[in-house]
């Protein structure tokens, strides 16, 4: 049976409610990516403080730091499954409140954690445990945030509303880079390495409290309320018809396909936006300040293209915009990296190159959240899109730093980041081509 174009119920959500949902969904995502950005930008300092035993090399410490980074990502699917299940049964609002509390607490504690020099071998283990808690909370954040954004979105604007999820990724990473750059300019190297790196993590506490206040004022989505009204409960609500339940096999297939469609975005986004500072420092001998400036420019390009890409996908379709982004990233990966490696290239040319790299990643990130939301019915949307996103990020984002650093060390090939990005974007392109051209015009499935 054909799906109707634009469900009328979506349009009944009043603009103030939609805007509140947009802000409440975005703020937690901002905090999540702010912290992940800070951890990536301070990777070399964290390595020296937590992962360098007596006699250990700097490269060994950095690899261990990224292993802890990757471990947190591998707990994202667990968080997506656990919190997604709760969110699909109990509601988006209470689940997102629980998630922001866990995320804020774990990140704040990292800023208070004793280092290896103070606590010994227990320090890296405690850091890793807190990273696991962050991974669990981050896994529960995406599915709920995108669900409320897209389920509250007015007709014809799902791509634009969903794009705010990706936009706050850029804002979070930019905020992390900005704080890191500010501290690097205000503090001496010894101060930054000794205690200055803690300040960005401690800043999460007031941000988290503000996010909690916003989410306490959030209403439940119309889509969830409609689905809940057809679910049996203590009050004896009617039992749903059998065809309303999404078969497990269909959901698992959609999760795998969604992860494939996001593969290029995950890999390219983390390679260009988070891993780049450590790569520039450890491989191309850039200073900490130079690496941060390059990363800020890449994130500015990323932020500049996300909202326009999401809005454009509401007009011409998710498939067209996202395929264009994946292809452009693959085409530009080697020229970008070669330009950064060229000592004769001007600073302006390098800056423009990393800005452009971020912008083409934004073409995938803008329509991505809405594309995922459209793949799942309401009953499993929180779980399904959360798992697809977290699985893709666990494998292709969380492992990016570890894979690139280890591969460059073992092979001596400084083009490894480009190989990684091209391979993942090629696979992602084929998966994106399976999208229907009119998905953006169809109503979300209840």
From TrEMBL:
Spans through the membrane: 66-84, 96-117, 129-149, 161-183, 195-216, 262-280, 292-313, 320-340, 352-373, 385-404, 416-435
Transport recorded as keyword: yes
Coiled coil: none
Topological relation to the membrane, as annotated: Multi-pass membrane protein
Assigned keywords, A-Z: Cell membrane, Membrane, Symport, Transmembrane, Transmembrane helix, Transport
Annotated Pfam families: MFS_1 (PF07690), Sugar_tr (PF00083)
Domain Major facilitator superfamily (MFS) profile: 21-441
Keyword Signal (UniProt): no
Family as reported in the entry's similarity comment: Belongs to the major facilitator superfamily. Metabolite:H+ Symporter (MHS) family (TC 2.A.1.6) family.
Protein name per the record: MFS transporter
Organism: Streptomyces griseoloalbus
């Amino acid at each position: 049976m054909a799906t109707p174009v634009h469900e009328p119920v979506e349009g009944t959500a009043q603009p103030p409610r939609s805007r509140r949902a947009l802000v409440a969904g975005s703020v937690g995502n901002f905090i999540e990516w702010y912290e992940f950005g800070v951890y990536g930008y301070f990777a070399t300092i964290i390595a020296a403080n937590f992962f360098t035993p007596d006699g250990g090399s700097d490269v060994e410490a950095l690899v261990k730091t990224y292993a802890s980074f990757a471990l947190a990502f591998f707990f994202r699917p667990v968080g997506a499954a656990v919190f997604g299940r709760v969110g699909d049964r109990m509601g988006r609002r209470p689940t997102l409140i629980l998630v922001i509390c866990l995320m804020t607490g774990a990140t704040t504690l990292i800023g208070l954690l004793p280092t290896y020099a103070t606590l010994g071998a227990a320090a890296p283990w405690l850091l890793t445990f807190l990273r696991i808690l962050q991974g669990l909370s981050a896994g529960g954040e995406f599915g709920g945030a995108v669900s409320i954004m897209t389920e509250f979105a007015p007709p014809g604007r799902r791509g634009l509303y969903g794009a705010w999820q990706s936009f706050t990724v850029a804002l979070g990473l930019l905020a992390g880079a900005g704080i890191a750059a500010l501290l690097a300019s205000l503090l001496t190297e010894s101060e930054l390495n000794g205690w200055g790196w803690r300040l960005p993590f401690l800043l999460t506490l007031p941000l988290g409290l503000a996010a909690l206040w916003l989410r306490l004022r959030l209403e439940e989505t119309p889509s969830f309320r409609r689905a809940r009204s057809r679910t049996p409960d203590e009050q004896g609500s009617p039992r749903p018809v059998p065809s309303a339940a999404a078969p497990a096999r269909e959901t698992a297939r959609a999760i795998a396909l969604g992860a494939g469609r996001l593969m290029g975005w995950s890999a390219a986004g983390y390679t260009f936006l988070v891993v780049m500072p450590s790569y520039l420092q450890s491989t191309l001998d850039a200073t900490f300040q130079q690496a941060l400036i390059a990363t800020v420019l890449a994130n500015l390009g990323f932020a500049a293209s996300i909202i326009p890409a999401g809005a454009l996908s509401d007009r011409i379709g998710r498939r067209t915009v996202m395929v264009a982004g994946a292809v452009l990233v693959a085409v530009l990966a080697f020229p970008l990296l070669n330009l950064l490696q060229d000592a004769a290239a001007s600073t302006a040319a390098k800056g423009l190159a990393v800005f452009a790299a971020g912008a083409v990643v934004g073409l995938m990130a803008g329509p991505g959240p809405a594309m995922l939301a459209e793949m799942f019915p309401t009953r499993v949307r929180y779980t399904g899109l959360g798992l697809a996103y977290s699985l893709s990020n666990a494998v292709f984002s969380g492992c990016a730093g570890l894979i690139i650093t280890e591969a460059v060390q073992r092979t001596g090939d400084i083009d490894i980041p480009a190989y990684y990005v091209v391979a993942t974007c090629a696979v992602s392109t084929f998966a994106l081509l399976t999208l229907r051209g009119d998905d953006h015009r169809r109503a979300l499935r209840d």
